[in-house]
Automatic annotation (TrEMBL):
InterPro entries (UniProt xref): PepSY (IPR025711), Peptidase_M4_domain (IPR013856), Zinc_Metalloprotease_M4 (IPR050728)
Sequence ranges assigned to domain PepSY in this UniProt record: 6-76
Pfam families (alphabetical): PepSY (PF03413), Peptidase_M4 (PF01447)
Limits of the Peptidase M4 domain: 182-269
Single GO MF descriptor: metalloendopeptidase activity
The protein's name: Peptidase M4 domain-containing protein
Organism of origin: Eiseniibacteriota bacterium
Length: 699
């Protein structure tokens, strides 16, 4: 039915009927339309008048809908949007220490609410400059509520029952103009203002260094005036807490450096998770964070009175002379090194290196120093120097931080029965300083037929990074070679490798081999009757360069006919095999031993154990080694795969195969990954123990 029973004039009167008589209304357009309206679970279509009109006081562009059958006003909306409640949020804060003349500063990221009674009409937050704007849909008189809280921090005064300070104002949006929100001594506590201001300042400082760092972008608790405490402050994993003033100390929330220091703990904590640096690094990083923001090496100005402080990172403390085993004191060493670098490179460069070097997750000063150099590196090879190498090394070395030794890497030569082959002695010499190529030498002591000769040979670069080699001509049978390396860097540092040099050298022999292999094996405990294979793992190595030949496991079941199976190489010296039991039951006793032969011209054999056997019993239980099958496990979530891993694992715990979250790459981020085995009926068991092997590599 699209026939109106109410006239346009009647509809217009309904649309404007409750406006004050003095308001200048100007009707513009009236039209019959169909208006869909949701009622409970169905849509109702109404024939309505759509009426547009404007007003000058207040300014309005009105749209109204009047039922064309009943003449009832259904809805009316002013399409003029206002920015009527706007202004600046400021606070009087202390810029360094308790008692300083207060300065007015912008309060950033603080929440502001426009309320009509208990109903929130509009919500916003102040920007980095403290500006805000709230837009009500309809003009009126409202309450402006401004807590000292926002998306990145919430002040909670513990002495006041963890209450968040809050200011309120009565505002009339129709009047326009600005409404300043100003926190002063007349309406708030200075410790609350100081703590919020410096926490937000710290947040913005680290965001300027690392814009992607959002791990602290949550309403962090900023607790002030912790009851029954004094003279301290702390980071507790989620927020920062400050103590009230005591007889001998200032309120810690009123110290800019203390607030920044504690916020710095939060940055380090979240940057390192799930790892953690040493306590001294944690403290030193926070001290430096405060110092670089304030451009002042002193921490805790005026803490126990005028002219006093808590710490000063300026003095050149060093390892090991100034290490006392107290984290705040020891932290001054790393903080001092960073401060000295900053004095030469400036805050912009140093703060970048300081912050991003933490993502190397080092837990000691020396490793952090190397991460610092890696962060400074610009070509993927820290060993050829970095843009700021000299400044960084000089200042960290001044504080006794850094490994400046020459680290030698070399795979020891093995014995040989081949008198026709030559021998390559290859080693890499790594140091943060340049290696003096002319200093790299191989020292040989040759013993044969009762005579000994000693020679020194210069080694030649291979073309690989700091790798050198020397080729020794074939040796006669019965020759014993002892050898060691020496080298020097361009600063005069020297190295002998092995450290004992001639007194404790590497050795190998040329001639008939009579030394058997070495077998390392952890004896098996009792094994479950419900299993898909019982694995034997052994580490087998030999002195001869040819490696290991056959590795076998011999076993008997219940002292019956002996049997055997082969252990095959997995990776490195690791060998694995599986018992070939044809049938088994609870109570069966398995005795076994492992043998290995080398590849000498006259093979040498080793046994483990040297005498007798290991043994285990078949017991009630369930076990899976995942070699032949996936064990019927059910994967839920993540990218579980069963097979031979090729990423960070060289093999499974029981042989080649395992269940892995991605066989050939890292696990997926932000997923829950579960494996389910069973159900297993334990109703007849007296007790049960769950044992499993696992490995992980996380960042």
């Amino acid at each position: 039915d699209v026939v109106a029973t109410v006239s346009e004039a009647q509809a217009l009167r309904a649309a404007i009927g409750d406006f004050a008589a003095e308001i200048d209304l100007q009707p513009r357009e009236t039209e019959l339309v169909i208006l869909p309206e949701e009622l409970r679970s169905e849509t109702v279509f109404r024939l309505v008048y759509e009426i547009e009109f404007s007003s000058n006081q207040p300014a309005g562009d009105w749209l109204a809908y009047v039922d064309a059958k009943s003449g009832k006003l259904l809805k009316r909306k002013n399409r003029v949007h206002y920015t009527d409640v706007a202004g600046q949020t400021n606070a009087d804060v202390e810029l360094l220490q308790s008692g300083d003349p207060q300065q007015r500063r912008s309060i950033r990221y603080a929440d502001l609410f426009l309320k009509d009674g208990d109903e929130t009409i509009a919500k916003t937050s102040s920007d980095v400059n403290g500006s805000y704007a709230l837009t009500p849909e309809v003009d009126g008189t409202y309450t402006l509520v401004a807590p000292l809280a926002g998306d990145f921090g919430v002040v909670m005064n513990n002495t006041n029952g963890d209450a968040t300070p809050e200011l309120t104002f009565i505002v009339d949006s129709s009047l326009g103009g600005a409404q300043a929100v100003t926190w002063t001594d007349s309406n708030s506590l200075v410790q609350d203002r100081d703590a919020y201001y410096w926490a937000m300042f710290s947040r913005d400082y680290i965001k300027a260094v690392d814009p992607a760092f959002d791990l602290l972008d949550y309403p962090m608790p900023i607790v002030t005036d912790l009851v029954d405490n004094e003279c301290n402050a702390f980071w507790n994993g989620i927020g920062i807490t400050f103590y009230p003033a005591g007889q001998q100390c200032a309120n810690t929330a009123r110290s800019a450096s203390v607030v920044i220091h504690e916020y710095g703990h939060g940055i380090t904590d979240f940057a390192y998770r799930p790892f953690t640096p040493s306590g001294a690094m944690h403290e030193g990083f926070s001290d430096y964070f405060s110092a670089t923001i304030l451009n002042d090496p002193i921490i805790g100005h005026g803490f126990t009175g005028p002219g006093t402080s808590i710490r000063n990172i300026e003095p050149d403390r060093r390892v090991p002379d100034d290490v006392v085993g107290q984290v705040h004191t020891d932290g001054l060493i790393i903080a001092g090194a960073l401060w000295d670098v900053r004095k030469e490179l400036g805050s912009a460069v140093t703060d970048q290196l300081f912050h991003f070097a933490r993502f190397g997750y080092s837990d000691n000063f020396d490793d952090y120093f190397f991460d610092f150099l890696l962060e400074d590196d610009d070509d993927g090879n820290v060993y050829n120097g970095t843009p700021n190498f000299a400044v960084i090394v000089d200042n960290f070395k001044l504080h006794g931080i850094g490994d400046y030794s020459i680290n030698v890497s070399h795979e020891k030569l093995k014995d040989s029965e081949d008198t026709s082959k030559s021998f390559d002695f290859t080693a890499s010499f790594l140091s943060i300083f340049q290696i003096d190529a002319s200093s790299v030498e191989l020292h040989l002591k040759t013993e044969r037929d009762g005579s000994t000769t000693t020679e020194t040979h210069a080694m030649s670069p291979t073309g690989e990074t700091r790798e050198f080699t020397y080729n020794l001509t074939p040796q006669m049978e019965g020759t014993k070679i002892s050898y060691w390396f020496t080298s020097a860097d361009t600063t005069g540092g020297t190295s002998t490798y092995p450290e004992g040099g001639e007194e404790d050298p590497f050795t190998f022999t040329v001639g008939v081999d009579i030394t058997p292999p070495t077998i390392a094996h952890t004896p098996l405990s009792d094994q479950p009757v419900d299993h898909d294979g019982i694995s034997v793992i052994a580490e087998v190595s030999d002195n001869l360069e040819l490696g290991v030949g056959d590795v076998l496991a011999q076993f008997t079941q219940n002292e019956l006919e002996p049997d055997k199976f082969e252990l095959l190489p997995l990776s490195g010296d690791r060998f694995a095999g599986e018992f070939t039991l044809k049938a088994w039951d609870v109570g069966d006793l398995i005795a076994y031993s492992i043998s290995a032969e080398d590849l000498a011209s006259d093979a040498n054999m080793a046994l483990n154990p040297e005498k007798g056997d290991y043994s285990f019993e078949i017991v009630n239980g369930v076990g899976r080694n995942f070699e032949a099958t996936d064990g019927a496990l059910v994967a839920d979530g993540g990218t579980w795969e069963w097979g031979a891993p090729s990423f960070f694992l060289e093999s499974g715990a029981s042989g080649s195969n395992a269940w892995v979250t991605n066989l050939d790459g890292p696990y997926d981020n932000n997923v829950g990954a579960e494996l389910t085995m069973g159900p297993i009926d334990l109703s007849t068991w007296d007790k049960a123990v769950l044992r499993f092997n696992h490995a992980y590599d996380i960042e």
